Amino acid sequence: MAEEIKMPLPSAADLFSTQEERDNESRESVREIPLEEISDFPNHPFKVKMDESMADMAESVKQYGILVPALVREKPEGGYEMIAGHRRKMASELAEKKEIPCIVRNLTDDEAIIIMVDSNLQREQILPSEKAFAYKVKLDAMKRQVGRPSKNSATVLPNFGGKTSRQILAEQVGESHEQIRKYIRLTELITPILDMVDSGKIAIRPAVELSYLPKEQQTILLDTMQLEDCTPSHAQAIKMRKFADEGRLNEDVIPSILSEEKGNQKEQFRMPKERISKYFSPGTPAKQMEDTIVKALELYRKRERGKDRER
Asked: Which of 61, 88, 109, 162 fits a disulfide with 95 by CB distance 3.0 to 4.6 angstroms?
């Protein structure tokens, strides 16, 4: 009995179209896609805010349209998922546009995550929480692309001289390996405390220490901070983490630690910035202003002493 040979049959498109037509069909092109057909990227770590910058962007879209197409991918159930262009989409909605120009690209979940993160990290202003979750999801995607590492270790990527995924990410975003680790630790904070990091009420260093506290203790800390209108210093945060590791941190100990005097509680002299801003170039850091004023006062004191000696 002759062996049955199975051969794949060509599709109708293959039979009745040229190779050039098939190549053109597979080539990426810009399409106008209705805004209502595009959903946001799941767990998008970057916040799209209605601020002055967004208002300016919406006005620009109203006058000139979208100049750089967004990037989307098709969803299995229909419609599209935004990869890069969430701000452009919101600006288009505010400008009362019905469609937005998009490039449709076939991407895996991990490819989509990496592109989504990389495109948003180009922004000038990025909140600590945005960096934290962006670095985390991208690092996880990089690890999945080369296989799972052992617990608590970073994956060593092939063709990169034995560097870990975290080291590669650090080089790509211009941060140190340790700084990447610190940002990712922030994802362990409860949302209200992470919001305080974004607003500058809590610095990154103490926030990293607080991220090691169990969620219940973070909640107690939050209640205490709101009640006492204070935030922990780095030293106090370290002390809380140590007490938590020893099982001694509770609702009585937290207020006690927060009540301890810290460096930033020393009496400070404040002056409205408007009174001195005219003496400095726009954008001069506050620390540089302070140093310049101190030097000027030292020179003034020397001059006054010189006058006294001449009398």
From this structure: 61
Which CATH architecture best describes the domain 23-108? Alpha-Beta Complex (3.90)
Q: What is the pLDDT of residue 281?
A: 80
Please, which residues have CB within 8 angstroms of residue 108's CB and are 6 or more apart in sequence? none
- Domain ranges for the chain, please list them: 23-108, 127-187, 189-261
Q: For residues 255 and 228, is the Cβ–Cβ distance under 8 A?
A: yes
Amino acid identity at 230: C
Nearest CA to 121 among 102, 103, 139?
Answer: 139
Sign, Cα dihedral of 250, 132, 206, 170: positive
The answer to whether 79 and 72 have CB atoms below 8 angstroms apart is no
The secondary element (H helix, E strand) that includes residue 104 is: strand 99-104
d(CA 207, CA 289): 27
103 phi and psi, to 5 degrees?
-100, 125
**Placement of tokens 């599209």 in the chain:** 80
Over residues 168-181, mean pLDDT = 89
Tokens of 118: 């990389």
With CA atoms as reference, report the closest residue to 173 among 126, 140, 206, 210. 126
Can you tell me which residue has the tokens 């080369």?
A: 146
Between CA 47 and CA 57, with CA 51 as vertex, the angle to 5 degrees is 95
The contacts of residue 79 (CB under 8 Å, 6+ apart) are: 37, 38, 39
Residue 147 pLDDT class (50, 70, 90 cuts): low
The answer to whether residues 35 and 100 touch, using CB atoms and an 8 Å cutoff, is yes
Residue predicted with more confidence, 301 or 103: 103
0.90 exceeded by pTM: no
